[in-house]
Amino acid sequence: MPHSPLLNRIGIRLPIIQAPMAGTSSPAMAAAVSEAGGLGSIGVGAVDAEQARAMIEAVRERTARPLNVNLFCHRPATSDADVEQAWIARMRAEFEALGASPPVTLTEIYRSSVNDEAMLHMLLETRPAVVSLHFGLLPGPALRALHDAGITLFATATSLAEARRIEEAGIDAIVAQGWEAGGHRGIFDPDQPDDLLGTFALTRLLVRETRLPIIAAGGIMDGAGIAAALDLGATAAQLGTAFVGCDESLADEGYRATLASEAAQHTMMTRAISGRPARSLANRFTAIGATVADGAVPAYPFAYDLGKALHAAGKARGEYGYGAQWAGQGAPLARFMPAAALVATLARELEEARATP
C-alpha cells in the first residue's frame, strides 16, 4: 500500500478515510474502519460537547486505533422570521397530509463549532488523532490549541480559493470535496457562486497549486476510484456513500431501501432539507426542493428544524421520502456488508487496480 508522511503521522495503514456523516456514521462504524487499517470518523456537528465525548469514548471502547472527529464550522445562523414563517406555511400541506402539524417557529438546532468553547475543551481533553472541519475554519486560537495538543487538522475545500485559506490557516491536509459528493457541500459561503468542480478536477488542481496533502472526496466507491485519486496525486480518498449501507450505519430502513433502489441513480443537490446545499437520493423532499428558489429556504440549521420534524411525521406513517438520505453520484455502486469487510474489499481492489499495467 502507498504510504505518505500524513498517513504515517496519523498512524493508519490504508489511504482510506470513512467520511464522518453526522447522523449516519456510528462509533461502531468508525472503530471497525480504524481496526481494519483505515481512518474511522464520527461527525459531531449535530450534538453537544458531552454527547460528542460519549461518542469518542464509545469508539475507544472498541479500538485504540486513530479516530477523526468532524466539526461543523458554519457562520452562526441569523434568524429571518418572515422567511421562516413563509417556509412553514409552504410546507403545511405536507404535514397535514401526514396527519401532523408543522412547527410553530423554527429554532437553531445545531450550534456552530466556531463559538462552542465546550466542544473545543472536550477535544483538547480527549485528543483524537484528527479533527476535521467542514463549512469553514475555526478561529486561529482554537486551531493553535488543537495543534499544540498534538491533533492533526483536516479542512474541506470545494475550490482553490478555499484551499488557500486552509493553507494560510496552518491546517495539515485538505479534503477536496467534489460536486459529486453526497451530504452537505463544504462550501464556506453557500450564498456565493459555486464553480461546481468535480472531484478529480479539484483534486488535481489542489495537488498542483497547494503544498498540503490532498484527500479526494466525492463519488469514490471502490478500489479503482481510490487508485485513480492516488494517481492524480491525492494522499488518500474519503468515502461516505460507500459506507451508508454497512451494518454499523445508522441509516434507517427507508434510507437503505432507497439507496438500493433505482432512486440511487438520480441524486440531487438541494437546500430544502437543511438550508445548505446537500446531495441526497431523489425522494419527496428533493422534489419539493426542485420547485423553490434558494432564497425561499430558511438558513441552516433553521430549515433543518422543519426538515427533521417532517421526516419524523412521515416516518411515523411509514413514509421515508422526507428523510435526509444523503448520497453522492456514485450511489448505484453501493454495497451492503460490515464496515470491516468493505475496507478489506476496498484494499484488495486498490491493490488489483495499482497492479494492472
SSE-based structural type: alpha/beta
Low-confidence stretches: none
Supply the CATH class of the largest domain.
Answer: Alpha Beta
Give the strand order, joined by hyphens, for the main sheet: 1-9-8-6-5-4-3-2
Attribute tags:
14 helices; 357 residues; alpha/beta
Topology:
Elements: H1 5-10, E1 16-18, H2 27-35, E2 40-43, H3 49-60, E3 67-72, H4 81-97, H5 117-126, E4 130-134, H6 140-148, E5 152-157, H7 160-168, E6 173-177, E7 183-184, H8 199-209, E8 214-217, H9 223-231, E9 236-239, H10 241-244, H11 253-259, E10 268-270, E11 278-280, H12 284-289, H13 302-316, H14 339-355
Parallel strand pairs: 1-9, 2-3, 3-4, 4-5, 5-6, 6-8, 8-9
Antiparallel strand pairs: 7-11, 10-11
Helix pairs in contact: 2-3, 3-5, 4-13, 9-14
Word description of this protein:
By secondary structure, the chain is of the alpha/beta class. The protein has 2 domains: about 5-75 and about 110-250 and about 330-355, Aldolase class I (TIM Barrel, Alpha-Beta Barrel); about 75-110 and about 270-325, no CATH class. It has 14 helices and 11 strands. The protein has helices at about 5-10, 25-35, 50-60, 80-95, 115-125, 140-150, 160-170, 200-210, 225-230, 240-245, 255-260, 285-290, 300-315, 340-355; strands at about 15-20, 40-45, 65-70, 130-135, 150-155, 175, 185, 215, 235-240, 270, 280. The strands form 2 sheets. Strands 1-9-8-6-5-4-3-2 form an 8-stranded parallel beta sheet. Strands 7-11-10 form a 3-stranded antiparallel beta sheet, with no helix packed on it. Helix 2 runs parallel beside helix 3, helix 3 packs parallel to helix 5 and helix 4 (about 80-95) runs parallel beside helix 13. The chain is globular and about 55 Å long. It starts with a helix and ends with a helix. The model has no long low-confidence stretch (mean pLDDT about 95).
